[in-house]
Amino acid sequence: MLDKHQILQNTFGFDEFRPLQEVVVDKILNREDVLLILPTGGGKSLCYQLPGLLMDGVVVVVSPLLALMQDQVHGLTAKGIRAVMMSSLQSYEENNQAEIGLQNGEIKFVFVAPERLQNEYFLEFLSSLDIAFFAVDEAHCVSEWGHEFRADYRQLGLLKTHFPEIGVAGFTATATTQVEKDIVHQLQFKDKNNIIRGKVFRDNLFINVKPRQGNGHSQLMDFLQMHQNEQGIIYTLSRKNTESLSAFLKEQGLKARAYHAGLSTEERHQAFNEFVNDDIDIMVATIAFGMGIDKSNIRFVVHMSIPKTMEAYYQEMGRAGRDGLPSEVLLLYSTGDLGLLGRFIADIENEDYRNLAYHKLNLIKKYAFSEGCRHQALSHYFDDEMPKCETQCDNCLNPDVERSDISEQAKMFLSTVYRTDQSFGQGHIVDVLLGSKNQKVLNNAHQNLSVYGIGSATNRVIWKIIGDRLLEIDALIIGEFKVLKLTDFAMEIMKSKQTVDIRASNLQTQSKALKPKKIAKQEYEVDEEIFEKLRALRAEIAREEAMPAYIIFDNKTLTEMAHFLPNNEASLLQINGVGQIKIEKYGERFLELLATLRTEDFEEPIYNSVQKPVVEIKPVKKLHATYQATLALIEQNISIEEMCQQRELALSTILAHINKLAEEGKIEHTKRQQFFDTVVMDEKVKNWILQGIEQLGSVDEVHHQLSIFKQLNQIQ
Ligand SMILES: [Zn+2]
């Protein structure tokens, strides 16, 4: 029989193990539970594939994404190893064949989604097999403290309950100490100390982080100049931005393409293949792109705005340079992004998740503003320690000795936060410092404060930079609704017990880059089209009320609105220049318009499983006769089955009628629920559909694919 070194050479083509691989392989062969935390590109999959080949029995691999499973199966098959995935993508027949193959011992690796393991039938089937061990890929999904928590993963403790003697091996690229403890606890490891952690430091990546100027296009072009004919990924926050940026890059003669969850499956496949085959150089993508991508020659990764967590940032930038060759990453950030992400967070209903999300956002903000070694900061975040990289990040390479003392300005800023009862965001604090006469200042009588106008000698841009610096050094923290709060450290600064300084160049570049006249426009990245639509509504109202447009909302307010796209009264109130009276007069109409602008373009970050569904109900004036007929039956209190029979209609049609009638107010919503509660859907079918939706993005798309499938296979 071959030993591990021979398999490493024959099957995988390597002469020697990479750091940590051999340790993990040995532990798995020894049937221990083990958790491996290794950065992307460290060679994780080999760690479970190789021992699988040496052991008797089948390896059950749990994976969160169908695309990931598919890649792994293809990879193994290419090496001549029998592997299958059992999922909603396979037909009943294919899954059946897989079961037979597993029973006969012909298949070595089976990939399954976590939800399948909650199925009693499947668990029973597994217990009839000879299992070598369980591998749990992307194990950080187990933990609520991680960045991609999945409820199905949390149930994976059942592996140990059902198969106490079989080893479990967990794999992830990113986990803090808190997350790793949670993983071994949830997976019920026998030895909870069996954790192996790779170095966080990716020494072939050069990290740049810069404040974004305007839309960042010119900074991006400077960067791309250094990477001609190389492949890379550019991440943006919204779908619309991917489209406009890729169009811009094409105009510059670059081979770029947009990728986001709004594209059809076919378009996404095509884009993916073009990128993998080097037909295009630059993929401009939302976070929807990249998980499980197995392309080793990505030379650069750019973030056009700040990612929502350090984990996401590290994982996304980690897609560069997996072949170990020098690669470069760039993050362009602005305080506007933080406001936008903060607003998404404010919508999270669960308080614990919300606070955690704020906490994580504050940490990445601190990272972006930091003047220390980037690699050291990342290592520190993931509980790994290292000295300064010296050569592989912007801060180490350009240690800026010239510093400006801003203690006096810091005191003014902090005092203003204090005098306004720590209840306002940065924009308002700056307004008070500058002595602005805007509505929000006057409504709160802040013109009467001693701090009003004390900062008028310094311009708005510089005040923003000073505010950011105070956040960075933890003199301030951001609470809900972007409200600034003072820390103990702030008190020491105000009492002159501490000084505050900043890189002199930070004050210079910014003030040079932004011309005071255009501040309102420059402050936020704004989509012209959205701005114009808001302006048109304002003009309409101005005509109706026969008053100047700027009295309704000034341009600055519209700019902020266009940037933040508030979706309820509370968030609309956070916009400068929007007070209670204006909300009452115009709130509804603007929110209505904003809702239409928002849904089309914004790909919201998803925080854990908490999402707010947006249901739009459009009134329909006349009720069609067919609904009337169903309504008559409902009033007779007969069962849904009987309704289907009497009306000779399908169950789905009757259900659609009931929904329609409830929305029209013809029947009570509780009544509707009573009917719905009597309809029992097969769990397997339901899960199959839910997975389809997850895979394809919408139920319509599932429907669409089904129709295509029907036609192709000539099914009536
Ligand atoms: Zn460094």
From TrEMBL:
Keyword field: ATP-binding, DNA damage, DNA recombination, DNA repair, DNA-binding, Helicase, Hydrolase, Isomerase, Metal-binding, Nucleotide-binding, Zinc
Transmembrane segments: none
Keyword Nucleotide-binding: yes
Signal peptide: none
All copies of domain Helicase C-terminal, residue ranges: 216-364
HRDC domain ranges (all copies): 524-604
Cofactor(s) in the UniProt record: Mg(2+); Zn(2+)
Domain Helicase ATP-binding: 25-193
Example of a GO MF term: metal ion binding
GO cellular component, as recorded: bacterial nucleoid; cytoplasm; replisome
Catalysed reactions, as listed in the record: Couples ATP hydrolysis with the unwinding of duplex DNA by translocating in the 3'-5' direction
Entry EC number(s): 5.6.2.4
GO biological process: DNA recombination; DNA repair; DNA replication; SOS response
Xref: InterPro entries: DEAD/DEAH_box_helicase_dom, DNA_helicase_ATP-dep_RecQ, DNA_helicase_ATP-dep_RecQ_bac, Helicase_ATP-bd, Helicase_C-like, Helicase_HTH, HRDC-like_sf, HRDC_dom
Family: Belongs to the helicase family. RecQ subfamily.
Matching PANTHER family: ATP-DEPENDENT DNA HELICASE Q1 (PTHR13710:SF105), DNA HELICASE RECQ FAMILY MEMBER (PTHR13710)
Protein name: DNA 3'-5' helicase
